[in-house]
Amino acid sequence: MASFDFTNFPRAGFIRRFASWVYDVLLSIAIFMIAAYLGIGILIGLDSLIDFNSLSNYAFIRIDADINWKESHVIYQLAFLTWSIAWVSYFFIFFWAKSGQTLGMKAWRLRLQNQDGSLITKATGLKRLIPTLLGLGNFWLLFDRKNKLSLQDKITHTEVVILSLEANRGRL
C-alpha cells in the first residue's frame, strides 16, 4: 500500500460533508436502536434481579423502581438515553481515531485529520462531538468558504480533506 502525504489534499466543502453526514446519521440511528435494545435488556435484567422496593424499607424515601415504559422513572430514562448516546459517540470517536473516516466519510472520500495530516486522538474526537451539535457545526462552512473549516474544526484545530480515489482505497 502506498504511503500518502495527507497534508496536500484539499479541504472538503459543505455539500460533500453534508452528504457524508446523511450516511452517518442513518448509521447512528441504527447504532442507537441496537444500543437501546441492549440497554432495555440490561435494565429489565437488573429490575428482575434487584428488588428496589425491598431495599427502600431501609431508606427514608420509598423507591418505586418497577419499569413502566410509558411512564418510566427519570433515572431509567436518563440511563437509557446516556447509554445509547454513548454508543453512538463511541462509533464516531473510534473510527475518527482509527482511520480518520466513518463509513459515510469513506463513501464520500473524506478524512478527518489534524492540520498536520496526522490522525486525531480519541481525546480530540471527544472534544469534537460537542461543537459538532449533531452536524450543525458544519453550517459554519457556509460563512467560512475560504478556509473551509467548520466550527468543530476551528475549536479542535482539525480539518476534513477530500482524498483521491487511490488514497481512499483500502482504508477503514
Characterization of this structure:
The chain is mainly α and 172 residues long. 53% of the residues lie in helices and 6% in strands. It has a two-stranded antiparallel ribbon with strand order 1-2. The protein starts with 13 loop residues before the first helix and ends with a helix.
Properties at a glance:
172 residues, two-stranded antiparallel ribbon, mainly alpha, single chain
Question: Brief description of this entry?
Answer:
With 172 residues, the protein is mostly helical. 53% of the residues lie in helices and 6% in strands.
What class, by secondary structure content?
Answer: mainly alpha
Shape: elongated
User: pLDDT average, as an integer?
Assistant: 84
The SSE order reads HHHHEHHEH
Radius of gyration over alpha carbons?
Answer: 21 Å
Helicity range of the residues?
40-55%
What is the count of DSSP helices, taking H or I runs of 4+ residues?
7
Number of strands: 2
Main sheet characteristics: 2 strands, antiparallel
Q: Low-confidence spans: pLDDT under 50, at least 5 residues?
A: 59-63
Cα separation of the termini: 13 Å
Query: Strands across the major sheet, in which order?
Result: 1-2
- Strand content is 5-15%
